[in-house]
Amino acid sequence: MLTWNLWLAGNCVDDARPKQLRFLRELAPDVVGLQETIGSAARELAEELGWQHHQGGSCGIISPHPIVERYGDDEMWGVGARLRLPETDVVVWSAHLNYTPYGPYDVLAGMSAEQVLAREAESGRPEQIRQILAELAPALAEPGLPVLLLGDFNTPSHLDWPQLPWPVSVAVTDAGLYDAYRMVHPDPVAEPGHTWSPINLWHEGQVGTPEPQDRIDFIHAAGPLRPLDVRTVLVGEPAPMPDHAGNEWTSDHCAVLGTFALAAAR
């Protein structure tokens, strides 16, 4: 399972489409949740690969396996699909929540925890994830059904910031999904798993002020799924902005790749 913010469909890097296709063919994931598709990249990538797709606005889902149901539309902050894998159906949602205001920037600016959380409420992200979780509720209630919630949430996790109960990650946990990366790598100090950003190193382009690095791209899971390996992935050693145009890696985020086993029936 892979979640991948394409960075404006890859349009910020030269010859992005063949690079994206090479990456996907090499990994051969069972399902990919995409963000920043600009309304077409999920469909176009799937057609090139001979896969199936569900194309929304920012978000999309592509897979070599049959998609038997589709959920969500361009008006939502994510799209979902039910896929028929050889051993089981799985319901997957790809989410891309609002990017501003961004909490780590507020922390960098010296705001208190109360101010940061107030601004988090203003961002709309807590309501956006509530809408997606409401759509996911029937799948979460279906006995024995694997469920995945992937995406760029544009907010950190309370599992990485114990002093800040970031409301989006708290809501996802309260809904019964677990953070697959933190399940495999429980120590956020030893293995931070940063996904933002491998190429954006300086805050607002000002050399000398480091860009806050954080984990904002997630794979959450529920049901009979046991994570075997969850890791951040990219290709090569991408040059930082503004010298990124020739990178083999076409995004400004790391992707997150998860390998799961179906839990044995009790």
Instruction: Using the alpha-carbon principal axes, give the shape.
Output: globular
* Strand order of the biggest β-sheet: 3-4-2-1-12-11
**Could you describe the largest sheet, including whether it forms a barrel?**
6 strands, mixed
**Strand pairing plus helix content: what structural class?**
alpha+beta
State the low-pLDDT regions, or none. none
Indicate the mean pLDDT: 96
Q: Give the strand content.
A: 25-35%
User: DSSP helix count?
Assistant: 7
Could you state the order of secondary-structure elements as H and E?
EHEHEEEEEHHHEHEHEEE
The counted number of beta strands is: 12
Helix content: 25-40%
Straight-line N-to-C gap: 25 Å
What is Rg? 18 Å
